[in-house]
Amino acid sequence: MADWHSEARLRDERIAAGRVLADGKVVPAGAAVDLLEAILRPGDRVCLEGDNQKQADCLARALAACDPARVHDLHMVQSGIVLPEHLDVFETGIAKRLDYSYSGPQGGRIAKMLYGGQIQLGAVHTYLELFARYFVDLTPHVALIAGVSADREGNLYTGPNTEDTPTVVEATAFKNGVVVAQVNAIVDRVPRVDIPGDRIDFVVAADKPFYVEPLFTRDPAAMTETQILIAMMAIKGIYAEYGVRRLNHGIGFGTAAIELLLPTYGERLGLKGKIATHWALNPHPTLIPAIESGWVSQVHCFGSEVGMDRYIRARPDVFFTGRDGSLRSNRAFCQTAGLYACDLFIGATLQIDLAGHSSTVTRDRVAGFGGAPNMGSDPHGRRHPSDTWMKAGHEAQGTGDPMLMRGRKLVVQLVETFGDKLVPTFVERLDALELARRTGLELAPVMIYGDDVTHIVTEEGIANLLLCRDADEREQAIRGVAGYTEVGRGRDRAKVEALRARGVIRRPEDLGIEPLDADRALLAAKSIKDLVHWSGGLYEPPAKFRNW
Amino acid sequence: MESLTFRHATTKALPGAAPHAITGVVASGNLEILLERVLPPDACEVAVETPIAGYGAVWAAVVADFVARVQPGGLRISINDGGARPDTVSLRLLQGARLMER
Q1: Which of B62, B87, B98 comes nearest A459 by C-beta?
Q2: Mean pLDDT across A32-56
Q3: How far, in Å, CA of A106 to CA of A124, rounded?
Q4: Which residues of A touch B93 (CB under 8 A)?
Q5: Quick one: which of A423, A474, A476, A469 has its CA closest to A449?
Q6: For the whole prediction, is pTM greater than 0.80?
Q7: Residue of chain B minimizing CA distance to A416
Q8: Per mean pLDDT, which range of A73-82, A250-259, A281-290, A433-442 is the poorest?
């Protein structure tokens, strides 16, 4: 007779083993290691919550402290490799396989461990793709998550940094998995119920509040004139040109400069209300001046940002907030919004090749992708028109029945031709190919494929790849904005000038942009302190950004 | 430290009457440029002092493009480099020329 309940029985065994250590559902931090050793089985798929922002760090420390004789060969399926413990578990044998998305701060170490064969890598995903696999073939047996507070029934308040939690819990709790939540405090009544208690099996009272990285805070004081020039070109040559109202910004200084130029340069161009009104975006502090100047209708967030909570609470017309008043973020929904409901994605990268493929993998760093490959792709499932989307589609196709021409999402790479230490952004061959070869990956970790990129903006100009009709034009358009890198100096000057005559390449002077205007005086805020003033004192920047 | 000098012929003199201008700062990743209207109207000379040796070809390309774009006849330009990237040099040269046109 078929057994339809084997997973449920295994779950019951895990829960029974864990209950011994708990008072109801509540487990003290000191017993977290014992709890994990009790509920985990060798080879389990485990989601240890952590993305580019919040971290279930107490549970990460507990997992790394488990006895490898009892807990071993785990398959980690998690958004972020961010904390040292996320990699320590691969050194001790607690974990063996990895499927993930983002690895910013551990990029150097993860590269070494991949080359050394200590990690069996499945793939580097985009967030939404990894979430999708939680429901198909990477469903966690155990999820280790983080919340702000819980009551004794396990009702969970995830607060402004809700982020990945609802998705992880959904996939685990409804497929016979076990969910363990670390919380900063056990309370009688949570401010709002973000996750119902019957989906939470154990609550660990953490020894200290979970860590959140202020990843989206860019100090205006560090913005350069080159970044300001690039931002001016993007606003005038792309945002105004296509009437971009619904958009997502990456985390770089270039996009932060755009945010700070909206109330100054954008205002001067008469663009208020015509561009940048609806956003899928984390609460970037650099967006405060645009919000305060009435540019922004609404913002849905993947996560929160350190120091922005009080400001967000005071601006519920702009942000999505709960009945308790604080931000409700949700990475899966916001990634979906970025994919289907935004007409433009604009972000930076570390390398771009001659076909426009880009990657953040370099020889000694594997930074992962986060959401960029998702939002930086043209969704073929989209069916609703917008002026922006239709204009881009028409530029790409040229001929055909207009009623049958699908639009195109604008996917813009905003880069300086050289990065830190004069490392060129434009390359003949992506380092990602070398990584794939040396680690035996079938697919090189490309962040955004060339055929999804519509524009590349550098300090030298804008290359409109939609208007390129063959691979040679595309290559010359890219070389034509690659500045003084070897790729840029290898251009065919006659072909580049011909592309410029057709408007495929546009220089600052072609756009009527005066180099002298590329001045820090144009920034709506020139320091973090200016941002605090713009917010009426509501923005509370983290200590490392306070220099007054 | 490396010293480089580039001499170019121009088709015309840079418009404007400003006798000299200075822009930028000597800081890491930045540069200071002194522009002086002291040469014949069909000549331009750019002298570079840079702490980073080995980028002569890039300097030559940046200066040649600047001269072709602006035709800065009559100018002697002295660059005190602090390890600026080529794009910063290019932007600073354009800004300096604009100041001289005033």
Answers
A1: B87
A2: 96
A3: 14
A4: none
A5: A474
A6: yes
A7: B87
A8: A433-442
B27 has pLDDT over 90: no
| Predicted local distance difference test score (pLDDT) of residue A547 | 73
pLDDT, residue A514, reads: 84
When CB atoms are compared, the residue of A483, A515, A518 closest to B86 is A483
Q: How far is it, in rounded angstroms, from Cα B69 to Cα A187?
A: 68
The tokens of A13 are what?
Answer: 């065994």
CB spacing of A484 vs B95 below 8 angstroms: no
Q: Which helix (H) or strand (E) holds A474?
A: helix A471-479
| Residue A1 pLDDT exceeds 80 | no
Half-sphere exposure of residue A18: CA atoms within 13 angstroms, side-chain side: 28
Question: How many structural domains comprise chain B?
Answer: 1
Closest by CA to A502, choosing from A346, A409, A395, is: A395
Among the partner residues B85, B91, B98, nearest to A422 by beta-carbon distance? B85
Any A CB within 8 A of B18 CB = no
Q: How many CB atoms lie within 10 A of CB A66?
A: 21
- List, in sequence order, the alpha helices (H) in A267-313: 267-268, 288-292, 309-313
For the segment A446-455, the average pLDDT, to the nearest whole number, is 96
Query: What percent of chain B clears pLDDT 90, i.e. is strictly above it?
Result: 80
Q: Is B95 on the interface with A (CB under 8 A)?
A: yes
* CB-nearest partner of A516 from B61, B87, B95: B95
ipTM value for the complex: 0.87
The residue of A416, A481, A516 whose CB has the most chain B CBs within 10 angstroms, and thus the best one to mutate to test that interface, is A516
The CATH number of whichever domain residue B27 belongs to comes to 3.30.230
Residue-wise pLDDT for A341-360, tens only, equals 999 999 999 999 999 999 99
d(CA A208, CA B66): 57
What span, in angstroms and rounded, lies between the C-alpha atoms of A1 and A425?
62
Domain containing residue B36: 2-100
Q: For position A357, what pLDDT does the model report?
A: 97
